[in-house]
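[step 3/7] inverse_fold.run input=structure_tokens len=536
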């Protein structure tokens, strides 16, 4: 490649660091309880600038800086901030300041002759010790007020934060919380008893004239993945008549037209008091899991086509029960399923094990969380309201993040906030450092200094001397933390200055990963022509 397209060695590291520092400087003002605003120009010359306080959104909006080599460093921080935000719901600015400090100190040592690969080993070997130290500081976070304080860092609106805290406490860590666009300017929420699925009636003719929703009390329930024919439905109707059951619910992928006509005819003649037929939710393996869940909740036998089973072979004991079932064109739900509690609890444990098995950010985790909420019979709906569609979209994003943060704290606990938990892990790292020597030991030292970066950044943003605050923090944390909003040192648990453990852990893991990548980068290559163009 021609000159100007490649940077190597010290020049490459310096350029990368400058880009990292520029992006971090853009995000740092939003860090901590006393934070600033970053204004980003609109897409056109006449549009109003965006005033943003969310570090991840700011990073997302910043698609390029002028120097192409420095831009690579900036994009590392951009990716770090957004990935932390997506995984944990918070912590983007914290991750940026930790990573930037580690890269700055590591580059300084490498410039003086240090071995970057040895430093990398030291940083990576010390990470498990730091993570264990963080976990040992964790305590349960269960009260709505505590959860609200967790959500406040993302929402910045006390009323909404208290709403999120109340909802997460009510439905539990794995309870289903649906967030959807509302139809008014105010955000509201409802608790939904029992279980609810995003799949509606198979035929509008099965909904009573003039009604959007069908409701049945004490029906029998057929659960199958077989597309039902008239013969299948006729057999099930005969079972119901023989058992003197006059309400029937069918959960299946499809009904033939003759089958629908048969159900309507028997309802109209009074053979059935009411009938609901809903489409089996989801597709593929996820549909199988949900149908198995519904069978467990209702005490049904799941009739599987792959096993060669047919509804015509069913007996009345294969039909489940529930106190109440409702359905409309989009959704259906049930209350008081007749499944055995022990079987339901076992199914919940299996689903929770499935969440632990999937990787961070895996889309299937949301599916499993919804299953757990339905199995446990606890769910809520938040309807996001705002005066404009743009404001609604922005608020919905913040509420989604706040729910993620509060849910993670409810599930895994919290640790002292404002950077105190990181400083609380320093003694363990110093003890581990004594077993190392040379540049590996220096890698641990770089990590230790990075752990002080959050408290220094918070102090700086609040207008205090970072050196003074760091000095006291090194002696007081984690039993006391600096309340930058009121300029006092407080007990974190009494004052509610707590961070969710999963957020703190995710931030540290991602920061070290990005810092190590930057530290071991020796060559930067720019493209003469970009592969694509981003249009505003």
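[step 3/7] decode complete -> sequence:
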């Amino acid at each position: 490649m021609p000159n100007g397209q490649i940077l190597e060695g010290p020049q490459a590291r310096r350029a990368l660091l400058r880009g990292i520092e520029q992006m971090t400087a853009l995000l740092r003002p939003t860090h901590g309880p006393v934070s600033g605003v970053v204004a980003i120009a609109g897409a056109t010359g006449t549009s109003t600038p965006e005033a943003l306080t969310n570090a991840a959104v700011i990073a997302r909006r910043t698609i390029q800086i002028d120097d192409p080599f420095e831009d690579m460093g900036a994009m590392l921080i951009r990716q770090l901030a957004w990935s932390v935000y997506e995984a944990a719901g918070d912590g983007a600015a914290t991750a940026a300041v930790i990573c930037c400090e580690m890269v700055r100190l590591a580059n300084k040592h490498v410039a003086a002759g240090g071995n970057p690969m040895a430093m990398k080993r030291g940083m990576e070997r010390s990470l498990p010790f730091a993570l264990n130290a963080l976990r040992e500081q964790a305590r349960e976070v269960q009260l709505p007020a505590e959860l609200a304080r967790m959500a406040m860092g993302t929402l910045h609106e006390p009323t909404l934060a208290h709403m999120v805290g109340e909802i997460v406490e009510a439905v539990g860590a794995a309870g289903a919380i649906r967030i959807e666009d509302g139809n008014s300017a105010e955000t509201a929420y409802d608790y939904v008893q029992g279980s609810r699925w995003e799949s509606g009636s198979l035929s509008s003719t099965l909904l009573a004239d003039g009604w959007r929703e069908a409701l049945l009390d004490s029906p029998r329930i057929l659960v199958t993945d077989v597309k039902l024919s008239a013969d299948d439905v006729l057999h099930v109707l005969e079972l119901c008549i023989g058992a003197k059951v006059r309400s029937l619910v069918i959960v299946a992928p499809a009904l033939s037209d003759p089958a629908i006509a048969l159900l309507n005819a028997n309802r109209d003649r009074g053979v059935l008091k009411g009938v609901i037929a809903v489409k089996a939710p989801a597709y593929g393996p996820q549909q199988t899991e949900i149908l198995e869940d519904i069978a467990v909740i209702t005490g049904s036998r799941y009739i599987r086509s792959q096993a060669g089973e047919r509804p015509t072979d069913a007996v009345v004991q294969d039909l489940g029960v529930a106190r109440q079932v409702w359905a409309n064109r989009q959704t259906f739900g049930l209350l008081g399923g007749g499944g055995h509690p022990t079987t339901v609890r076992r199914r919940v444990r299996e689903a929770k094990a499935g969440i632990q098995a999937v990787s961070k950010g895996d889309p299937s985790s949301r599916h499993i969380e919804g299953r757990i909420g339905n199995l446990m019979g606890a769910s809520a709906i938040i309807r996001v309201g705002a005066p404009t569609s743009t404001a609604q979209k922005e608020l919905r994003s913040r509420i989604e993040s706040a729910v993620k943060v509060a849910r993670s704290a409810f599930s895994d606990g919290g640790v002292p906030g404002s950077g105190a938990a990181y400083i609380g892990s320093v003694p363990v790292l110093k003890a581990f450092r004594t077993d190392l020597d040379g540049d590996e030991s220096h890698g641990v030292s770089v990590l230790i200094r990075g752990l002080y970066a959050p408290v220094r950044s918070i102090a700086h943003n609040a207008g205090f001397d970072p050196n003074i605050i760091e000095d006291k923090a090194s002696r007081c944390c984690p039993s006391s933390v600096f309340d930058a909003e009121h300029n006092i040192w407080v007990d974190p648990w009494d004052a509610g200055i707590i961070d969710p453990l999963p957020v703190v852990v995710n931030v540290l893991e991602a920061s070290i990963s990005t810092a190590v990548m930057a530290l071991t980068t020796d060559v930067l290559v720019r493209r003469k022509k970009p592969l694509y163009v981003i249009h505003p």
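[step 4/7] annotate
Confidence is low (pLDDT under 50) at residues 531-536.
The first strand starts at residue 6 and ends at 8.
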